[in-house]
Design brief:
This protein has 323 residues and is of the alpha/beta class. It contains 10 helices and 11 strands. Helix 9 links the parallel strand 7 and strand 8.
């Protein structure tokens, strides 16, 4: 790679994992777009990893994660296209089918077994996964951070599960998407997840349940993905300790005027969504705001894009498409 040569696509197998464990002092490992074997996960144990992110196929399951007893942060997600969702929407990328990716039926059983065996786990991200009440019930109760970004199969059961997590202060919620705002995103998701004829976007968290979770405690960081309803926006007004808000919301969402009432909010991140000056405008009334970031929001990269934010707010735009 240092000579500028291409590296053939391969797998993250036991031999590669053994090399990482033997020759690297890194405590964070990210594996993307390479199949990860159970033998590789077991071979990583001597590395004593603190953080592991897998955005790839796991052909023989995830139960072997239990070998990584030192893990504090774990992320499991769908191997995204270059450019993320936007590339998938445009038809330039064909997502893997369920039988080849983390939508595998083995996700439920293996994930429950592995999570229960990780005593140090504090932060868990499940990205673009098809879940169930059984998976929600099996989530470790000691978590401080839980992110269910772009997941489906998330029901009202999450309200009770969150109530049983006393240390949880950072949360990502997948919200139901209004029918008139689904468009290509719904089509792309439905194409890759078997739904037995049901509407995939009804299998996400209802507005009332999301509002109940938000009102249940003071949150430090929140991520909202879907349609931000007025009901949920009203629930957010009381979040006096919220320092960061991440949003992947659609055109049917309520205005962001509630941010003016958040005394601790210093950072807002828009991710994988279309942004406009009208969407951003309410942020000008948030006095403690220090930074606004546009993560993979391609419209923000245009030379003519005008965010209209005051000079005191640092504005960052970046995309994963060209990395």
């Amino acid at each position: 790679a240092q000579r500028g040569e291409d590296i053939a696509f391969g797998a993250f197998d036991a031999a590669m994992a053994e090399a990482v464990a033997a020759h690297s002092q890194a405590k964070t490992l990210v594996v993307e777009s390479m199949p990860v074997s159970a033998a590789a996960l077991r071979a990583l144990a001597p590395a004593e990893l603190d953080t592991l992110a897998i955005a790839a196929r796991t052909p023989d399951g995830l139960a072997a994660l239990s070998a990584l007893q030192t893990l504090r942060q774990l992320s499991i997600g769908y191997a995204s296209a270059p450019g993320g969702w936007r590339a998938a929407f445009s038809g330039s990328y064909t997502p893997q089918k369920a039988s080849r990716g983390t939508y595998s039926p083995s996700l439920t059983k293996d994930l429950l077994a592995s999570l229960a065996a990780l005593p140090e786990l504090e932060a868990l991200t499940l990205r673009s996964c098809l879940l169930s009440d059984a998976v929600l019930d099996g989530l470790p109760r000691q978590l401080r951070q839980l992110d269910l970004y772009d997941c489906f199969g998330v029901t009202a059961r999450l309200v009770d599960v969150v109530a049983e997590m006393p240390n949880l202060r950072e949360l990502g919620l997948p919200l139901q998407v209004r029918a008139d705002a689904r468009g290509r995103r719904a089509a792309a998701a439905t194409a890759r997840i078997p739904t037995q004829g049901s509407d995939l976007h009804t299998r996400r968290l209802a507005s009332a349940d999301a509002a109940a979770i938000v009102r249940s405690r003071m949150w430090r960081r929140l991520r909202l993905d879907g349609t931000l309803t007025q009901e949920l926006a009203d629930a957010l007004r009381g979040q006096a300790e919220l320092v960061e808000l991440r949003l992947t919301i659609d055109a049917a969402s309520a205005p962001l005027g509630f941010v003016a009432s958040l005394p601790a909010l210093t950072r807002v991140v828009f991710e994988d969504m279309d942004v406009s000056k009208a969407v951003i405008a309410p942020l000008k009334a948030c006095k403690p705001l220090q930074e606004v970031a546009f993560d993979n929001c391609l419209s923000s990269l245009s030379e003519t894009f005008d965010h209209g934010l005051p000079a005191r707010v640092r504005v960052r735009s970046f995309t994963r498409r060209f990395q």
